[in-house]
Specification:
Layout: H1 11-27, E1 32-33, E2 44-50, E3 59-68, H2 81-101, E4 109-114, H3 120-133, E5 138-142, H4 144-153, H5 156-160, H6 171-178, H7 184-197, H8 204-216, E6 218-222, H9 229-241, E7 246-249, H10 253-259, E8 266-270, H11 281-297, E9 302-308, H12 310-322, H13 332-335, E10 336-338, H14 344-357, H15 362-376, H16 383-402, H17 408-420, H18 422-432, H19 435-445, E11 453-454, H20 455-466, H21 475-482, E12 487-492, E13 495-500, H22 503-514, H23 517-525, H24 529-536, H25 554-570, H26 574-590, H27 594-618, H28 624-634, H29 647-667, H30 672-688, H31 690-695, H32 703-718, H33 726-749, H34 754-778, H35 802-805
Parallel strand pairs: 3-4, 4-5, 6-9, 6-10, 7-8, 8-9
Antiparallel strand pairs: 1-2, 2-3, 11-13, 12-13
Helix pairs in contact: 2-3, 7-9, 10-11, 11-26, 14-15, 14-16, 16-17, 18-22, 19-20, 19-22, 23-25, 24-26, 25-27, 26-27, 26-28, 28-30, 29-30, 29-32, 30-33, 32-34, 33-34
Length: 809
């Protein structure tokens, strides 16, 4: 016989939790959860009327639910019957003892639940054993398949206990998702979530994140490296995937907006939204600009999950506040979840599930059992350190112990070192690496920030840095030796991708590179945009204490300046160029030393001169974002720099705007991007070079075009969709909100029409809100799940026995 869920993998403690939660979901919160020590044979208990064994008929009395977990009951070739019958007889003896002591409540209904599969004959045998000893009690039995049926009928349990997802065969579901037309970042996130499911523990922060998403449709997971922010986000995503949601793993708001589908249920995951190991000002700037629009789009069918370290989040929030954007950002106290808040039972379960997943041999198992309490109560316990200890350090220690190279005293010291100071061990490992291996890691540092890195691209970058190094090992050999030590690999549709085992490893490599002048210098000579960001960052490292890595000497500053000039010729996309200008501006603002400000200003002035001449010579169209970044950087120069020629950009945006108007007039389809471009450019020019507008006879020359735009916006206030669906209403509401934003921008450049345009913007916003409310009435979305998973590990903290948990390891 086969079983749909591999219940054996749960272990006795989590099996009890799941059964208690299923009972509450089935019968209500009146069911009392017991279990653990001192349960007196009652894993769950109820007194009163209950729709059991059939929901249609209520019975009244005392109901006792007893859970018996049999280790490896459903393994291939297993015969759980002898162990199960032994457990039943032991339980009967225990009940008799409790009766004699007066601590047993007479049961009218006794329900025996096990993970083992029950044949008809075995059910009868178990029921008869109880009836012989307690003839006045009605006895019922439920086996593993019954439990699977309950789980199928209560999908909400998947959210409260996402580790159940690892017990079913997810391959078919996830492969079908991966084979859809989703981008690589999302595919890799799904693969990583699938791997994580086997060891995940639903912690308090996980439950709070779910509750926050249900309330605000948005959560920010905060915490230092190694505490499990990304793991929580990935498991929330995985549970939503099983409910037919889509995952969009993105880094920038333009990905969010571009992949947003009104009619679909989507969860957007932005891992390290404002930088991975240091604050990324260019990414922060993008979120500043588009955050109000993004927040308008999130709702019960569209969730947004951000992960960030606290110091990076605070820096981003501070910059947003300076731009008056933070007012649109939900208050941190409302959406912020601290991922570090772990209880003792949660930590113990993390160690247990990691050890269980590794299928340890007998000696490593005994080491874990013996030192479980010591590990769990460590002040420096983190999920990542436990993963590293079980997968990497434990095999080494057990091997040394078996050969007599490590005694008990040394073993405990090694375990303590592995949990409390893993970075020191990794530093030693890094220092022992040959130079080619260090260069491969440095190559990944140079390209991995904010990108999905393919193995082939990493090889190309590594070759670019090290092509002149004769006699070095093959790239493939280097990769083989670094995998599972520093790096990990995912394969998606036959393409291999590389990432760090954990962001803390990237931090370590950056720290070591910054102390190596030859590597730092060569990285700067061939610097990618990511290396420029890294070298000028001032909030890197685990606590934001790292400042300007790679720039400790004047020679390095000179190399950086030279490379920035080269990048002006090499960079072809406007986004990367905008990022470079934004990085320089942000680095100047945050620099505390005047000497550093002077160096950045010097680089900036030369770069702006070269960039302006390039634009003018090539008659390039300059995007509003790039033009704004140019003028913002001009502010730090020590002389007044001229503006670039704006004629081509202006005429191009006018043409787009007119095309958008024609489309709008013909079929009422609003091409917002065409309309938005000119109004955004208009706002930026008005703020920085108003003389250009005066020479262009603005606004008089463009009065007809402006009036057409305002008239069409006004007509939308009275336009109604015919028999609209909820998705159509939401889409129209979003367009009206965008129109309101454009009207506000137009208001700021037409001061004589300020009041009129402000009133129009307010009416557009009001109608958008009404449409959203109407859409919600037509399609209220998924009902709120009242059940949140009654079990809280903190509830059993005083009774929890760490050592007992590992009995069945």
């Amino acid at each position: 016989m086969t079983i749909r869920y591999r219940l054996d993998d749960l272990g006795w403690f989590q099996f009890e939790q799941v059964i208690q939660s299923v009972l509450k979901a089935q019968f209500g919160f009146g069911i009392q959860s017991w279990g653990g020590r001192g349960d007196w044979g009652r894993d769950a208990y109820y007194k009163g009327k209950l729709g059991y064994p059939s929901k249609e008929v209520e019975n009244e009395g005392t109901f006792i639910f007893q859970v018996k977990f049999v280790e490896n009951a459903n393994a291939s070739g297993a015969n759980p019957e002898p162990l199960l019958l032994k457990a039943v007889k032991t339980e009967i003896d225990n009940i008799k003892t409790r009766v004699d002591k007066g601590i047993w409540i007479k049961a009218d209904f006794y329900i025996f639940i096990t993970n083992a599969l029950l044949t008809s004959a075995l059910r009868t045998t178990i029921e008869n054993l109880f009836k012989e000893n307690f003839p006045e009690t009605r006895v019922y039995t439920h086996g593993g398949n019954d439990v699977c049926d309950w789980l199928d009928n209560n999908p909400q349990i998947r959210k409260a206990f996402p580790q159940l997802l690892s017990l079913r065969d997810l391959s078919g579901l996830l492969e079908s998702i991966i084979n859809r037309h989703i981008h690589t970042q999302s595919k890799i996130a799904i693969e990583q979530a699938k791997e994580l499911a086997a060891v995940f523990v639903p912690t308090g922060p996980y439950q709070k994140a779910l509750e926050t998403l249900k309330k605000y449709n948005f959560v920010v997971l905060d915490g230092p490296p190694e505490v499990g922010k990304t793991a929580i986000a990935q498991m929330i995503v995985l549970t939503q995937l099983t409910d037919d949601w889509e995952l969009i793993a993105c880094k920038e708001p333009k990905e969010f907006i571009g992949l947003y589908k009104t009619e679909n249920k989507q969860v957007f995951m932005v891992d390290d939204a404002f930088g991975r190991t240091e604050y990324d000002p260019s990414r922060g700037k993008l979120w500043e600009k588009d955050l109000p629009h993004v927040l308008r789009l999130i709702n019960r069918k569209h969730w947004l999950i951000l992960t960030s370290r606290k110091h990076i989040l605070e820096r981003a929030y501070k910059d947003m506040d300076l731009e008056d954007i933070a007012k649109n950002f939900p208050k941190p106290a409302e959406v912020l979840v601290d991922a570090t808040k772990l209880t003792v039972p949660e930590k113990a379960l993390m160690l247990y599930r990691q050890a269980k997943a590794e299928n340890l041999l007998s000696l490593p198992k005994e080491i874990v059992k013996k030192y479980a309490e010591f590990i769990v109560y460590s002040q420096n316990f983190t999920p990542e350190r436990i993963r590293s200890f079980v997968k990497e350090r434990l095999p080494y220690l057990s091997n040394g112990f078996s050969k007599g190279l490590i005694d008990n005293t040394a073993l405990q010291k090694e375990i303590d070192e592995a949990i409390n100071n893993p970075t020191q061990r990794m530093k030693k490992t890094y220092k022992k690496l040959p130079l080619p291996h260090k260069w491969l890691l440095a190559s990944l540092v140079s390209i991995d920030e904010g990108k999905v890195v393919s193995l082939s691209y990493l090889e190309k970058v590594y070759t670019n840095y090290c092509s002149s190094m004769d006699g070095w090992p093959l790239f493939t050999d280097l990769m083989d030796e670094l995998l599972e030590a520093f790096l990990k690999k995912n394969t998606i549709t036959s393409t291999e991708y590389i990432s760090w085992i954990h962001p803390s490893y990237r931090d370590l490599v950056i720290e070591e590179i910054s102390n190596n002048n030859s590597i730092s210098k060569r990285l700067l000579e061939f610097a990618t945009l990511d290396i420029i960001k890294l070298s000028l960052s001032d909030a890197g490292g685990a606590k934001g204490e790292r400042r300007l890595p790679l720039l400790s000497t004047d020679e390095q500053w000179n190399v950086l300046e030279s490379r920035c000039m080269q990048l002006i010729d090499e960079i072809t996309d406007k986004y990367s160029l905008t990022s470079l200008l934004t990085i320089l501006r942000s680095s100047y603002s945050s620099a505390s030393e005047q000497a550093i400000k002077g160096k950045i200003a010097k680089i900036s002035m030369e770069l702006l001169d070269k960039l302006r001449h390039k634009w003018n010579e090539n008659s390039e169209i300059i995007s509003p974002e790039l033009l704004n970044a140019y003028w913002e950087l001009c502010v730090i120069a020590d002389k007044l720099l001229p503006s670039p020629d704006l004629d081509v950009s202006w005429e191009s945006s006018i043409s787009d705007f007119q095309e958008g108007l024609r489309s709008w007039q013909d079929d009422r389809y609003i091409k917002l991007l065409h309309l938005k471009l000119w109004i955004e450019l208009l706002r930026i020019i008005n703020s920085n070079e108003p003389r250009f507008l005066k020479l262009r006879l603005f606004p008089d020359k463009y009065r007809g075009m402006i009036d057409d735009f305002i008239k069409l916006a006004e007509e939308d206030l009275s336009f109604d969709l015919d028999s609209p669906m909820a998705d159509q209403l939401n889409e129209f509401a979003d367009e009206l909100s965008d129109l309101a934003e454009m009207i506000v921008n137009l208001r700021d450049v037409l001061p004589l029409e300020f009041m009129k345009l402000q009133a129009l913007a307010d009416e557009l916003k009001s109608k958008a809100e009404s449409l959203k409310e109407e859409a919600a009435e037509l399609d209220p979305g998924e009902p709120d799940i009242d059940y949140e998973g009654e079990y809280s590990s903190s509830d059993v903290g005083d009774q929890f026995n760490v050592n007992r948990l590992f009995d069945d390891l």
